[in-house]
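Input C-alpha cells:
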C-alpha cells in the first residue's frame, strides 16, 4: 500500500484547479514535500509547496524538473489543456496541441520520473483522465481522443511498471468546478472532492478511480449498444 504520509510528490499543473486542490490535500495527509509545477512558478500560492517551472511538452523543461526533484516518490500527471478542437473544422495544429499536452506531456514526465521513483524504492503514478476518455461530444473531439490515448497509455504503463515497484492509478472525472468547465450548465464535482478521491486511490493502490456519477455512467455504457452513449445514432421510430 502506498502511504501519502512522508511521501514526496510532484504535481504537474499544481497552481490551480484540481492540481491546486491536490497540493493542499497532499500536505493535509502528511506529505513531507510537494513540488507544484506551472509554466510560471510564481502562480503557485501554497505556502509550503516547492514551485517548479515546467512545460510538459518540452523535453528539456521536463528533464530540468526531474533534476530538481530527485527525491520524488509520487508523480501526479494533472496538467492538461482543452482547446475544443474539432477534427473537421479546427486547425490541425490545435488538434496536435491537445495531444502534445494531454498525451505526450504525461509520457515525457513519466519517462523522466520512473528512474527517480525506482531509485527511491518504488512509488506511485496518478494520471488524470476524463469521462471523455470513453465518449466524445461536439466541442471536445480532440480532447476526448487525447484522453482516450492517455487512458491506453496508463493501462500499458500499469502493466510495465508493476514489476518495478511502481503502481499506476487512472482517475476519471466528469465536470469539475474549475476554469475548464466555466460556462457548463451541469452538475460539477468540487476540486477538493476529486483530490480526496484521487489520494484515496493512491493509498489503496487502486488501478482506477471514478470520481463522479458521470464517469461511472459513461463507463457502464461501454458494455451496452453504441446508442447508449450516442443516442443520436438510434434509428428513428
Amino acid at each position: 500500500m502506498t502511504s501519502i504520509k512522508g511521501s514526496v510528490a510532484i504535481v504537474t499543473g499544481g497552481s490551480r484547479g484540481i492540481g491546486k486542490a491536490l497540493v493542499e490535500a497532499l500536505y493535509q495527509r502528511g506529505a513531507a514535500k510537494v513540488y507544484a509545477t506551472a509554466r510560471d512558478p510564481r502562480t503557485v500560492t501554497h505556502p509550503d509547496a516547492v514551485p517548479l517551472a515546467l512545460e510538459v511538452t518540452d523535453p528539456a523543461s521536463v528533464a530540468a524538473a526531474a533534476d530538481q526533484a530527485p527525491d520524488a516518490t509520487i508523480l501526479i500527471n494533472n496538467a492538461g489543456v482543452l482547446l475544443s478542437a474539432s477534427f473537421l473544422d479546427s486547425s490541425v495544429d490545435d488538434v496536435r496541441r491537445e495531444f502534445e499536452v494531454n498525451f505526450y506531456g504525461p509520457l515525457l514526465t513519466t519517462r523522466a520520473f520512473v528512474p527517480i521513483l525506482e531509485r527511491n524504492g518504488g512509488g506511485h503514478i496518478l494520471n488524470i483522465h476524463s469521462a471523455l476518455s470513453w465518449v466524445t461530444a461536439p466541442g471536445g473531439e480532440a480532447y476526448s481522443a487525447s484522453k482516450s490515448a492517455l487512458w491506453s497509455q496508463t493501462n500499458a504503463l500499469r502493466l510495465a511498471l508493476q514489476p518495478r515497484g511502481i503502481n499506476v492509478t487512472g482517475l476519471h472525472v466528469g465536470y469539475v468546478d474549475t476554469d475548464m468547465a466555466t460556462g457548463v450548465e451541469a452538475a460539477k464535482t468540487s476540486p477538493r472532492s476529486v483530490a480526496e478521491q484521487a489520494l484515496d486511490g493512491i493509498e489503496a493502490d487502486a488501478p482506477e478511480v471514478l470520481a463522479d456519477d458521470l464517469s461511472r455512467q459513461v463507463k457502464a455504457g461501454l458494455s451496452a449498444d453504441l446508442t447508449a452513449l450516442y443516442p443520436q445514432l438510434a434509428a428513428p421510430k
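Helices lie at 17-28, 59-68, 92-119, 141-161, 191-203, 213-221. The CA atoms of residues 25 and 196 lie 7 Å apart.
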